[in-house]
Every structure is written in structure tokens, then in C-alpha cells.
Amino acid sequence: MGDGCGCGCSGEKKELTKVNWSVPGIKCEGCAGKLETALKEVAGVKCVSVNADEKTVALGFDAIQASEAQLLEVLGKAGFAVA
User: Fold this and answer.
1) Which of 12, 23, 45, 78 lies 20 to 30 Å (CA to CA) from residue 6?
2) Domain limits for position 71
3) Rounded distance between C-alpha atoms, residue 60 and residue 62, angstroms
4) pLDDT (tens digit per residue) in 26-69
């Protein structure tokens, strides 16, 4: 995947903090869509990819505008937890 985080970020977004989470609670594309929408609404999130088959979340965000703890809270409020 090069310099990207797996969410579609390209090398030009090197300034982003990139995370990859295993989220076993993702059961279907509907769950993935719900989670992707919730994370994209957070200020500073630049790219998100939720894979229902692999039960993973990859995202890139601006650490000045958002924190990993804040994103994990959004994930929890949407009904999901990181393994």
C-alpha cells in the first residue's frame, strides 16, 4: 500500500496520522457504511475505508483536529469496538 494507510490515502498525505483497526463487530456492508459515515463526520478525518469482509477500519486524519481517542469514542457510539 505504499505510504497510504489502506484507506486510499496517497503518499501526498504523509502529514496524516494513519491507523488500521480490527473491528470484529462489523457484520455486513450496512455496518461498514454506518461506521464509515460516522467517522467521516469527524473534523480532521481525511480518508476512511471500512472493509466488512475483513472487519477492518483504515483511516487517515489530521492529529491537530482529531485524536485517536476521539475517533475510538465515535466508533463506540456507533456500536463498535476495536479488538
Assistant:
1) 78
2) 11-77
3) 7
4) 999 999 999 999 999 999 999 999 999 999 999 999 999 999 99
